[in-house]
Amino acid sequence: MKFRLILMVLGWRLAWLAGRDEGFRKQLAHRDVVMQWRTFSGGVARWYHFQPDRVTSRRGLHPSPSVTLNFKDADYAFRTLKASGKNQMAFMEGMQAGDIKVEGDPGHLMWFMTLMKFILPKR
What domain of life (predicted)? Predict the structure, then answer.
């Protein structure tokens, strides 16, 4: 439930930024990327479509994502996302252990990581 909620809130935040933050919109220029986050079972899944000036988000599995982040289960995904705020190596450790798998173009995942500075609200 917590993982599903984080994914939904992330979608709202990305859409909000696409409409209101000039720096974020510059990052979207010339992009057409579908990033999907899911559990191995596919029981929890959400995708984000990054386009110039817009990000859309839907629950469920996308038929042809550009990149997919697969987590072993929803509880593990929530714990990893929570830990990644303090430990940037949390994702790498999960990938090395086989608990997180990336399918598709990893360059899109690296690009998404450059967006992290916009996602958390400024204090």
Answer: Bacteria
Q: What is the CA radius of gyration of the chain?
A: 14
- Tell me the per-residue pLDDT of 104-118, one tens digit each, with 9 for 90 and over: 999 999 999 889 889
Compute the average pLDDT of residues 98-103.
Answer: 96
What tens digit of pLDDT does each residue of 56-91 get? 999 999 999 999 999 999 999 999 988 887 777 888
Phi, psi of 57 (to 5 degrees): -140, 140
Query: Could you give phi then psi for residue 51, rounded to 5 degrees?
Result: -135, 165
Q: How far apart are CA 115 and CA 111, in angstroms?
A: 7
In CATH terms, the superfamily for domain 2-115 is SCP2 sterol-binding domain (3.30.1050.10)
